[in-house]
């Protein structure tokens, strides 16, 4: 049985990689490994395949913070507590076909994984627990594909109703972006303000408060009309053009339709 150190050395030699900093992927799958050496030397490791081995624990990733994809399926893992929680960049995590138990402890490992999109936990004892899927959807809000099935909006709503009842009650009292508790004059009492009185002559003559007064309403209307934007309305006069039948029967050239422009204020 080859050691994990020898397997890693052979893997890097096959790919001509000499420096640890150049290692972004490690394929150590199906090597009959029962343990894996610490991989902290590979600071830029992003993808790691350790599936199809005989691992019972995972303690080799304490210094790998940039892993995006981690494949640990088809092993003999019974507990991963404290081994994965620092991998906050994870997007894909495969843990199916293991012996993982205690669902509440397991999902605590995923609490800080806010970019985790794909998660597989099927064929583990935890997948047999009651409301397993709903609990995982609630505990890992970022997950989009759980056990090879898309997470639906209805599942998220159900998870909120079951595991976040206080927040659900608060949502039910919210309407149009604010809490609705009744008319404002009841729940937001204040002093009554007197109505503002306007000089009707001032409003009728000038419309704008800072405009000068006019002698008559007609003068005010004419001044207002001159301040309005100019509107152009253009049409085509087709009346002087021959119809389609006449065009086919004559060789006489005809002009383009006349353009008529109307100006409004």
Q: Main β-sheet, in a few words?
A: 7 strands, mixed
Distance between the termini: 92 Å
Sketch the topology as an H/E string, one letter per element. HEEEEHEHEEHHEEHHHEHE
- Helix amount, in percent? 25-40%
**pLDDT < 50 runs, ≥5 residues:** 202-207
User: How does the helix and strand content classify structurally?
Assistant: alpha/beta
Number of helices: 9
**What share of the residues does DSSP label as strand, in percent?**
5-15%
Structure description:
The chain has helices spanning 4-14, 103-108, 132-139, 153-163, 165-172, 184-187, 200-206, 217-227, 244-249; strands at residues 25-27, 47-49, 69-71, 92-94, 118-120, 145-146, 149-150, 174-175, 178-179, 231-237, 258-264. Residues 202-207 have low confidence and may be disordered. The protein has a seven-stranded mixed β-sheet. A two-stranded antiparallel sheet has the order 8-9. Strands 10-11 form a two-stranded antiparallel ribbon. It contains nine helices and eleven strands. Helix 3 (132-139) packs across helix 4. It is of the alpha/beta class. The longest helix has 11 residues, at 4-14. Helix content is 27%, strand content 14%.
